[in-house]
Amino acid sequence: MSDVRLVDTTLRDGNQSIWGATGITTRMVEGIAPSLDRVGYRAVEAATSTMLATAVRFHREDPWARLRAARDRMPHTRLGFLTTGKRFITFYRTPESVFRLAFELLVRNGVTRLWVIDPMHDMAAAKRMATMARAAGFEEIVGGICYTTSPVHTDAYFADRIAELDDSPAIDSVYLKDPAGLLTPDRIRTLVPALRDRLTTTPFDEIHSHCTTGLAPLTVLEAADLGMTTVHCALPPLANGNSHPAAERLVANLRARGHTVDVDTTAMAEASAYLDRQARIKRLPRGVPAEYDEDYYRHNIPGGVLSTLARQLGELRRPELLPAVKEEAVRVRADLGWPIVVTPFAQYIVTQATLNVMAGERYAQVADEVVDLLRGDFGPLPGPVDADLLDRAMSTRRAQQPLPGDDDVTIDQLRDRFGRHLPDEELLLRAVMPAEQVDAMVAARGTSTRDVVGRVLSMLDERPDVTSFAVSNGGTRVSVDRAASR
Questions:
Q1: What is the SS3 assignment for 206?
Q2: pLDDT tens, position by position, 365-389
Q3: Confidence of residue 451 (pLDDT cuts 50, 70, 90)
Q4: Residue 1 contacts by C-beta under 8 Å, 6 or more apart in sequence?
């Protein structure tokens, strides 16, 4: 049996899977971080570029301040960041100069572990990103194999892809990432040995799987039995559902199988209780174990994408089209050469399927994003592409335009555009986000209730003659009395 280490995904993937990426705030990070730091995790997944964007867009919070808050309150725990190496915040390809700045800023603000995962298995691009990240100062870099199911995604396919990572000096280890929760205990028994056989120097010891079909808690146990010594998990209420196996239950199950897991489950319970309180206060959902859905293995469409599709069809007054769009999405994926059905490709596939069904003709209109996919913007497609679709796509106006991100920009040019004296962190956000969203974040600095109360209390320290004060806002009144000195 093995000594198993845990990676916590609560703040990032748990939040994204259960709370739509918008539930966690900086104040919540500050509240939960001390408990997380006591658990003994191998690492905590702190952010992706999507999480940085949602901090700005939905909370008007500085995402770099959030990372620093985690760093300062988790001094004994490594913080991690996940990247595809193709895009940073935007859905379009990001210039490498922007990625270099992003990597430098992540390290500067306390992130020392990086997962590099290319969903299309463009391993040359992944290795280039890993080299860039090492130069920026990341202490640990983990390359990834992104699991999915299709006629072309065989054990041999994945084994060939993982072999491409073995010669990279910038990659410390490799992990198996199952973002759609499609892995099964049976498949893991053949897949892990096949992948391990193709690596000669690089460790392959980490697994990440979602509970979408309810099988992940069993799958990761089987992986641990096969020698995978690092397992990803989350804390309730941000576990189960479309998220990851619940941490305390996972620990109990691993120990029951004879594995050693050196963690503080009391600290886990404290962190989970904090999140439960926040969920009740903010009326946020709680992840629950998912029922098994055999059809999911056929269409692969994530639950969040399906619910959004149902809502949009309802707004168009065509809710009856949902079954037909799901069926067409299976055909579209096959026509596209079997890309993995995760963000943003899941959205591209469903959008094209919707266009086909509503038009009554397949590919009468080809979505711009599908054109980008077909001309290689996201790397090589894993299987053969339908010839008619390719001809139609390549004849569009979109196909004649330069690929997004082809024209690299320099940081000096960005400073000319946005301001010579901007801090690097703000410059990066302005380079990849709408100006009005960043403006709102900047304007909100120092205006939160916590900030205002903190300044008032600081002022009181300088006025010992003030014994009480009150603040009112409409029907709410708060009063504070100074304790008598002893």
A1: strand
A2: 999 999 999 998 888 999 999 999 9
A3: low
A4: 257, 258, 259, 260
List, for residues 409-430, the tens digit of each pLDDT value.
Answer: 899 999 999 999 999 999 999 9
What gap in Å lies between CA 223 and CA 185, rounded to an integer?
Answer: 8
**Spatial distance between the Cα atoms of 242 and 239, rounded to a whole number of angstroms:** 8
What's the pLDDT score for residue 196? Answer: 97
- 3-state DSSP call for residue 69? helix
pLDDT at residue 109 in the model: 98
Residue pair 482/460 in contact (Cβ under 8 Å)? The answer is yes
- DSSP label of 478: E
Dihedral sign, Cα of residue 78, residue 253, residue 13, residue 445: negative
User: Using only C-alpha atoms, what is the Rg of the chain?
Assistant: 24
Domain 5-282, CATH among 3.40.50.720, 3.10.20.30, 3.20.20.70, 3.60.10.10? 3.20.20.70
pLDDT number for residue 409: 87
Sequence-ordered list of residues with C-beta below 8 angstroms from that of 282, at least 6 positions apart, any chain: 23
Q: How many CB atoms lie within 10 A of CB 249?
A: 15
End-to-end CA distance of the chain: 59
- CATH 3.20.20.70 in the chain, residue ranges: 5-282
How far CA 190 is from CA of 195, 254, 462, in Å, comes to 9, 21, 68
What pLDDT shows up at residue 483? 66
pLDDT in tens, 240-293: 999 999 999 999 999 999 999 999 999 999 999 999 999 999 999 999 999 999
Any idea which fold 299-399 has? Cyclin A; domain 1 (1.10.472)
Q: Alpha-carbon distance 427 to 419, whole Å? A: 8
DSSP state of 319: G
Distance CA 440, CA 56 (A): 8
Helix axes 96-108, 411-418, angle to 10 degrees: 80
Range(s) for CATH 1.10.472.90 in the chain? Answer: 299-399
Residue identified by tokens 């003709």 is 361
Say how far apart CA 326 and CA 305 lie, in whole Å: 11
Q: 167: which 2 tokens?
A: 């010669």
List of residues 6+ apart from 319 with CB closer than 8 A = 310, 313
Q: What whole-number distance in Å separates Cα of residue 319 and Cα of residue 115?
A: 39
Q: Tokens standing for 42?
A: 């191998």
- For residue 484, pLDDT over 70 is answered with no
